[in-house]
Amino acid sequence: MVSSRVQVSLIATGLLVLGLGLCLYKAVNLGFPLVPGEYRDVWTVESKVSFKPSKGDVVEVELKLPAMLAGWSNVDEYFASSGFGFSVIAPSRDNGFDARRARWTRQTLERPTTLYYKQQMYRAKQAKDLPDMPVLEVSPPLLENDRQAAMARLVDRLSQQSSDRESFTSLLLQEFLRQSPDQDSLFLLGSYQEGSLVVMMDVLAYKGIPAHQLRGIVLEDGRRRQTLSALIEIHNGEKWVVFDPQNANIGLPDNFFIWQRGDGAVLNVVGGRDSSLEFALVSNSLPVKTVVSMGQRSEQVDLLDFSVYALPVEQQGIFKGLLLIPVAALVVVLMRVLVGIRTSGTFMPVLIALAFIQTTLLVGLIIFLGLVGVGLWIRSYLSRLNLLLVSRVAAVIIVVILLMAVLAVISYRMGLDQALTVTFFPTVIIAWTIERMSILWEEEGGHEVLIQGSGSLLVAVLAYIAMSSQIVSHLTFNFPELMLSLLGVILLLGKYTGFRLSELYRFRDLASEQNFPQQKARSQPKKSKKKL
Amino acid sequence: MIKLISPFKLRKLGILGMNRRNIGLIGSYNQRSNYSIADNKLATKSAAISRGIPVPELYGTVEHQFQVRSVGEQIRALTSFVIKPAQGSGGKGILVITGRDGDRFVKSSGALISIRAVKRHISNILAGLHSLGGRNDVAMIETLIDFDPGLKDYSFEGVPDIRIIVFRGVPVMAMMRCATKASDGKANLHQGAVGVGIDIGSGQAVAAVQQSALIAQHPDTGIGFDALEVPSWSQVLNLAAGCANMARLGYLGADIVLDRLRGPMLLELNARPGLAIQVANQAGLRHRLAQADKIADSTDNQEQKISLARKQFTQSKQARAQLALDIY
Description:
The complex is a heterodimer of chains A (about 525) and B (about 325).
Chain A: H1 2-28, E1 39-53, E2 59-64, E3 72-80, E4 85-89, E5 101-106, E6 113-123, H2 145-161, H3 165-177, H4 183-192, H5 196-207, E7 211-218, E8 229-235, E9 240-244, E10 249-250, E11 256-261, E12 267-270, E13 272-287, H6 288-297, H7 313-322, H8 325-339, H9 348-359, H10 361-382, H11 389-413, H12 427-444, H13 446-468, H14 470-478, H15 482-493, H16 501-506
Antiparallel strand pairs in A: 1-6, 1-13, 2-5, 2-12, 3-6, 4-5, 7-8, 7-11, 8-9, 9-10
Helix pairs in contact in A: 1-15, 2-4, 3-5, 8-9, 8-13, 8-15, 9-10, 9-13, 10-11, 10-12, 11-12, 12-13
Chain B: H1 7-13, H2 18-29, H3 35-39, H4 41-50, E1 58-62, H5 71-76, E2 81-85, E3 95-101, E4 104-107, E5 112-113, H6 115-126, E6 139-142, E7 161-167, E8 170-178, E9 194-198, E10 205-210, E11 213-214, H7 233-247, E12 251-259, E13 263-270, H8 276-281, H9 286-298, H10 302-312, H11 317-327
Antiparallel strand pairs in B: 1-6, 2-3, 2-6, 3-4, 4-5, 7-8, 7-12, 8-9, 9-10, 10-11, 12-13
Helix pairs in contact in B: 9-10
């Protein structure tokens, strides 16, 4: 016992020192700030160009790089181009609109290929206005007679209702957003077949309004397989105004990252077919200091840099969540070993807490209690059917999934989007929780169910609070080596032989003087006993 | 404000906490490989029989789901019996049938259940519902204890059993668990059964607690606990110490029942006995464990261990005074 105790202490101290040492080294020598100061959301965008080569042709892929408008600033960029000749072509005119282009070339290519361009950027300032841009001559579109007539009628009607270019554009966008556009718009939509955006651009051109598209991506943390979307920018006579065709709102949406301002293709593939451009996005809250110094540092200290930033974007997103789990595990250990809270299932609270992160706390609690409550009620009927255990639990799993579906559909119909996050709850765990609780109810009574149920929820909520704290996520993500220290602490706790807080309550009456309380003499008092 | 006791005071009283029990006793004195006898009641029973330790008679076992169908035939002839999982934990899954009412069975609480309910209970046992880790299990059908009439009034509906903690072959602490109405006839302290601390030296009651509050008399039968004295006490201690030998566990709880005809019988063994016994005795285990350690170092003889334990762990006044002189 002594030797294992010594071993544990040695290992735990070693881990603690190693973790804290690495953390300090990074903080002092590499300038990672320990305490989160002012934060910036740093977005990592991974662009994925996939295509199939056509037989025997020279392959040339050209990708326009983002123009970094509206206050965005580049931190770092990286191209993956194995086996390709690669170059970045500077814009021919340095006017801020002609963007840089990345060009990959190769003589022959056999199989479908994917090229990557990864970029990290952050918003240095919240600039809504885009720089001015010369207005080009507008030439009306060339159309067949029937389309021309429809377009003329549409433009006429909209012009009558509007006062200037802006209100015309607004009306036009609303026209195409409506559930039932009128005959002319429907005809135009049907005959174009390229989507409403092209129709709208042509209508604007027909009306003589200078307009172009803004291509870009909608920033959503953790999104994968995102594709380019477009906004419309028109010149109202004095300046350029941005419209969002999704909702006809004026102004640049906050979560829109402009890739290209103006018409023209973002991706050009010569010698290939079925090309596609997709984006994966992840956002990290990083201290300003780190962001600013990140660009220069990355290459020199790769060896000692444990940072997760080296990973591909998709994995970064996964690790962001994974690195929080040790913290939740620590909470469970603390609660069980030091406090002595009883939970149903050792690490079930961690899974519930992870679900809470997706659903937010209050919604999560309501959904969880609802699911377990209804589940217990249905389970109490199942117990009368005399089923085998495994089929009964399987039945509860199916019931839970059905409940989730019903909840999601009903709440969505009622316009409560939050309840859609119900899918983040681990179904099988909930089914087992229901099964355990219901057995507990039958065997030990509702009291015990209440104790263990509220114990589990309490631990889950505490774990959620720990995991959603900004300083915790800052430390776990930027200093993953702290996990070693955490491991040390947990090992030490595994050797803790002191009392639990709950035991101080459980044994609270042990200090009393007399063992049998005063009573009327029913039977002869034989002994008078005193506590030691 | 919740009343708490200071940890220093608890330490002074020698109370054993859950963490210390897990690491210092179970982890150090009970080898995993030796758990098999204590964790499986069938194994306990056969080991006990081979050593001549009395146990309740086994009517039969149900090992497979298909046998559940024919169980009806087996139990039709029985008026009273007990069904329990061989690897149940914490007294879970024990069904006590005390009589018959036509086709239906009378539970110890007096409730009537059908044969279907009995069969469902057995399939739940087989599926591992009540068992450690949810493993598939075996259901045991054994005789209902015809318990000593001297103890009848101390328990409401259920069988009172005596839990004795044995450390390295030395009995260190004992308590009797008496069922109450609140505990549904089960001798489970969590559910409101009464725990009566029993003096190791004399077999007399030391204190009685229900839900960790001291009480003087049984809440349902009204009988005072201070007159309680376990019959055939030295036999009980002998039995408990013998079990420790058999199970090869350094720290173990032996659950013993007193049958009217056959005397003390081993009901089951527990490799991870709980801590409530300290509340029932109003005394801590740690000092006694330290003394028991010395006793076990000094002799290998079971008789000697027991007699030393009876002398040192008695809570009667004279012996205590003598002991205080020895310690300080």
